[in-house]
Every structure is written in structure tokens, then in C-alpha cells.
Fold this sequence. Notes:
- This protein has 195 residues and is mainly α.
- The chain has 6 helices and no strands.
- The protein folds into 2 domains: 35-143, Serine Threonine Protein Phosphatase 5, Tetratricopeptide repeat (Alpha Horseshoe), CATH 1.25.40; 147-174.
- The chain has helices spanning 2-53, 57-70, 75-91, 95-108, 121-143, 150-177.
- Helix 2 packs antiparallel against helix 3.
- It is elongated and about 100 Å long.
Amino acid sequence: xxxxxxxxxxxxxxxxxxxxxxxxxxxxxxxxxxxxxxxxxxxxxxxxxxxxxxxxxxxxxxxxxxxxxxxxxxxxxxxxxxxxxxxxxxxxxxxxxxxxxxxxxxxxxxxxxxxxxxxxxxxxxxxxxxxxxxxxxxxxxxxxxxxxxxxxxxxxxxxxxxxxxxxxxxxxxxxxxxxxxxxxxxxxxxxxxxx
Length: 195
């Protein structure tokens, strides 16, 4: 009997070990692909920086946009990529894309400051304009009354009314059970006579 249990345990352990080996063999390429994608995007960021310095703006966009969608960059690399894309969009006069990219840059790196010695005046102006807009939006969100806050209060009132109605109904039915019955409607006095 003892030998039988040991063989069962060994079989279970062996089975678990086999499944673990199979899983590691299957998942290992996935991890390698993820690491390769991250290093691929890191190298694309370096290539994009070189393309930007060569004023090949369309190539910068082609290199960086897929990496920004996949999210295979570190936070520092994302900041650099958003900065590079923002500068590229401003240089190409793609105002909507520049605004979106600068917003994401400022959300990711709130204390970002353009470098006046290397950045163009239009880029610096755009960053400051969007920073001011974001600050105004934040202040407006703090000072404006939130209309959604009224809904929980309304629900509290409705729930409170339901509780009061339930308690009142309990006492009415409790009185009926105790033998105290309200007078029937025919016993009630009629309307007063007119003078």
C-alpha cells in the first residue's frame, strides 16, 4: 500500500514537472519576443533621434508611432519619444497631432521644460500654451461644482424615504395585529355644512 502511494506521488510529481517544462518551452519564445520588441523600439527611438537631426520628419513619425501604440518603451524612453514626436509635428505644422503629443508629454513628465538653446520658438510657444490650457482645465475642474455629486444625494433621499415608508407600514400593520384597527371610512365625519 505504501509503495502504491509513493508511485502515485512520483507520477503526479513527474506529470507536474513535465507540464512545467512544456509551459516554459512554449512561453520562452513569447518572453524573448517581448524583449526583442522592447529593444527594437529602443533602437527605433535612437534611429528617430538621428532622423530628426537630419530633418527627415516623416521618417521619425513612421519609426515612432508603432512603438507608441504598442507601449514597448520604458517611461524615460516614452518621454523622449513624445518630445521627439511633438517637435516633429510642430516642425511639420501638424497642429492637432502636436497638441495631443505635447499633452501626453506633459502628463508623463509634468515638470518638462523646453530647452531654448536647442528647441525652436514655435515648439516652446506650443508647450507653454498647452501647459497653460492644462493648468486652466485643472483649476476649472476644481472650482466648478460637480453636477454628478447631486445624484448620490438624490439616491440617499430616495433610500431614506423608502426606509421611512417601510417603518411606517410596519407600525400600521403591527397595530392591526394587536387589535387596534383604524375606524372604517364610513365612520368618518362628513364635510361641514355651508352657512
